[in-house]
Prior knowledge:
Blueprint: H1 3-17, E1 34-35, H2 46-63, H3 67-70, H4 76-88, E2 95-97, H5 101-115, E3 121-125, H6 130-142, E4 148-152, H7 157-160, E5 165-171, H8 183-190, E6 196-200, H9 212-215, E7 219-222, E8 237-240, H10 284-299, H11 302-323, E9 328-329, E10 341-345, H12 349-358, E11 361-362, E12 364-366, E13 370-374, H13 382-398
Parallel strand pairs: 1-11, 3-4, 3-5, 5-6, 6-7
Antiparallel strand pairs: 2-8, 7-8, 9-10, 10-13, 12-13
Helix pairs in contact: 1-11, 1-13, 2-10, 4-10, 5-6, 11-13, 12-13
The structure holds pyridoxal-5'-phosphate.
Amino acid sequence: MSEVEHLLERARQRDAEDPLAGLRARFELPAQGIYLDGNSLGAPTLATIERVERTLHDEWATSLVAGWTAHDWIGLPERVGRKLAGIVGAEPTEVLVTDTTTINLFRLAWAARRLTEDRRRVLIERDNFPADNYMLQGLAESFPFPTELVPLPAHELASAVDHRTAMVVASHVSYRSGAILDLDELVEAARPHGTLTLVDLAHSAGVVPVELSARGIDLAVGCGYKYLNGGPGAPAFLYVRKALQDRVLGPLWGWLGHAEPFAFEPDYRPASGIRRHLCGTPPILSLSALDEALEVLGEVDIERVRAKSMALTDAFVAAVESGTDRLELVSPREADARGSQVAWRHPEAWPIVRALQARGIVGDFRAPDLARFGFAPLYNRHEEAVRAGLALAEVVETRAYDDPRFRERRAVT
Ligand SMILES: *Cc1c(COP(=O)(O)O)cnc(C)c1O
């Protein structure tokens, strides 16, 4: 058997033995091609599509304004939060679904600064998703007490914490390399100094066990449309550790976060618990989609999802490296040190990604030179990982990406 046949054979065997294999049928996926961009936009389940239709016809069109109570729309941000709490290892009252990841990051970072006014240093991950750092730059400009942002590589954050540090803001899984940050080390470093931890779970929620409560993470935010499959622009979530909830108050004092929204009092009084972070009227169509999407994850053991995720990324790396040595693996080589994505560096990464897309294999490009592939264990197969890896190697080796039609840039990469 050739190496390629061997890789494919092993992948088929793994698919046959995969305890999660049956879940794929619950997703609506294109009939052709291999989708490896679930880390950017997850796929819908059939039930999600039906749920949104039901919400439109049987709830909105039927109940109109009575729907807020008849269908408990008003409680949806907290209800979906409870569901999500189980997936990220938080207590049911520690998670709220609302707004976007970046807005929630700003909100919680602001709240954390209020609790640590006497300190000015905020350690941030230098290579974090830029939006996170933009938000913190905005915070440093607008917060009424001086804030000094200290950008550091992720692995240097823990050792840089000291008594001057107000908080540390970092991603659990790097959006570029996929490297997993050691959260235990971070909490251990932060705790003795009273430094608050704020973690972005955009690339870990739903695919890497997070264990927020057990780890003692103070604050977290995350994204609803990546591995959680909530749909384009799905509402995001925020987490506040229970012991801190009465002291954590963001800058956006919305009416639905008021202790009694329908008392229409002239002055703001924060609701107790997680609901105080609610700002305006929740987007019920999008929340319904996310609510339904989380059903699948709610049924499976996240450790199983993780085991399959590691097998998928391993299979992909092996397939790529069986065919080319012209790509630099940017993700950690050991599966347990990376999330559910694999990034390769190549000066022609953009046309390479486009050439693969033309073959029906969807990954994405991250400037300036990374080709990134995400693996969604709920619907991707091991055989897909191997086929995609072989195709990537072939595109690189044959320079199929040289075609000028693969060079033009698009607005969204
Ligand atoms: C995807 C992602 C976001 C997205 O934020 P939005 O507000 O939903 O646009 C934020 N942070 C990180 C680390 C991400 O990967």
